[in-house]
Amino acid sequence: MVVLGCLKSIPTPILSQSPPPSSSSNSYKSILTRQYEPQQDEDLVVSVFQETSPSIVFIKDLELVKTPEGSDEVPITEDENAKVEGTGSGFIWDKFGHIVTNYHVVAKLATDRSGLQRCKVFLVDARGNSFSREGKIIGFDPAYDLAVLKVDVEENELKPVILGTSGDLHVGQSCFAIGNPYGYENTLTTGVVSGLGREIPSPNGRPIRGAIQTDAAINAGNSGGPLIDSYGHVIGVNTATFTRKGTGISSGVNFAIPIDTVVQDCPLPDCLWNTLQ
């Protein structure tokens, strides 16, 4: 039975009513009985991943090669010799192709004046087919490290995430992160909610308050992906991790922006963020 989002099984009647084992044989049988419970938990984790992973996207931040002035050559596209500036994650917000991610994942596109920055989004449609689209940035807020992309798709072609709430989280409850660390697509990591109400810096220096702390591994490329509860509902946007000085290795202290903050500061489709004209 799942209690407050945690993975927890009700003890079987055999375990709760049987007296302590009096022999090594009985002890062995008792151990085998107890070993079945984690399998039930694993089934739940697998189910959460299978239901949620089609809603997660892989984002490539690209810079096109500039064609020399006066040249008659066709500009080079991102599918040829474009430079990969960085990678990140995001998740499908709705059936219209809106994608939520971190601002720092697409900051170069948001501030581009050269016309050479592009964002390529790799997705899976509702039938499980992989494809890619160019992502257009339609809104961003550096103060909360959030941004919204739009990809052109047919209605109902995508599978949006299911939004949860971060207002009733409890320290100790299980959570999961899905993203693309170091370019490894659809990577699942597991952990617990380690703390609540944390404060982390935003890209513009303003503190982001109320962040969720978790020990579910978050590495480079995870940024913008969802933090998920045991019901498969999004409870946060994975954003930052503390690393050991000089190593770049995660310390296991990771942070996500609460989904309630995202909903409040990102009302879609009528986005109230800085919109690009």
From TrEMBL:
Database matches in Pfam families: Trypsin_2 (PF13365)
A GO molecular-function descriptor: serine-type endopeptidase activity
Gene3D superfamilies per UniProt: Trypsin-like serine proteases
Keywords annotated in UniProt: Hydrolase, Protease
GO process terms (BP): proteolysis
Record-linked InterPro entries: Chloro_Bact_Ser_Proteases (IPR051201), Peptidase_S1_PA (IPR009003), Peptidase_S1_PA_chymotrypsin (IPR043504), Peptidase_S1C (IPR001940)
Family, per entry: Belongs to the peptidase S1C family.
Official protein name in the record: Protease Do-like 5, chloroplastic
Annotated organism of origin: Nyssa sinensis
